[in-house]
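To the team - magnesium ion complex, inputs and output below.
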Amino acid sequence: MIKGFIFDLDGVITDTAELHYEAWKKLSDDMNWKFDRELNEKLRGISRMDSIKVIMDYNQVTLDDATVEELATKKNDIYVASLDDMTPDDYLPGARELLTHLRSEGFKVALGSASKNAIKVLKQLNATHFFDVIGDGNSVSKSKPEPDIFLYAAEKLGLPPENCIVFEDAEKGIDAAKAGKFHSVGIGPEERVGHADIRFNTMKEATLFEVKSHFKELF
Ligand code: B16
Ligand code: MG
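Output:
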């Protein structure tokens, strides 16, 4: 029986990918590193420190740990400042409606995001009240594709993975959900999240009715 839902944040509830892109681009320009939208796609769902390593590998740059940490902090300062402009109009279409529906039907709801800024994003969206549990980049040390963030969220909800559906937009996020033995819903194209149990192109299509009809035997 499905009793709980665990949502990723960026790409599922709201689209912070563009703000992450702009912040990484600014840092990369300052550093004379190559950075484009294709590379930004590879950062979807992975942690900040994993992201900077991907960008450095791409540019064949090696730096000492303290400098890498300093540069990641610089990017984060740019990103966090850009969140000030985010408002409750910035949900991805369909996300607020689904969260509202799930609450009204009595399902438990958790966040399972890699972001250390998730609480700020939820506040900007006025979305905090939808969540019984907030799992973010500060909750666990091993990031996606490890299942730890979803296991953390499920445990805090008091539910085993088989009673939960994870919503994810990232390839590694679906890998993490599967590694934790969760049911999974992929949001995005086949080539990215085609390995999820079910997939929708956008959150707008992912209504509770559609989800229930795909996982019939579990409701
Ligand atoms: P931060 P999600 C992820 O969010 C983003 O998709 C990813 O691009 C970012 O690097 C990561 O959060 C860490 O974010 O720098 O704010 O800690 O999709 O897991 O909600
Ligand atoms: Mg995501």
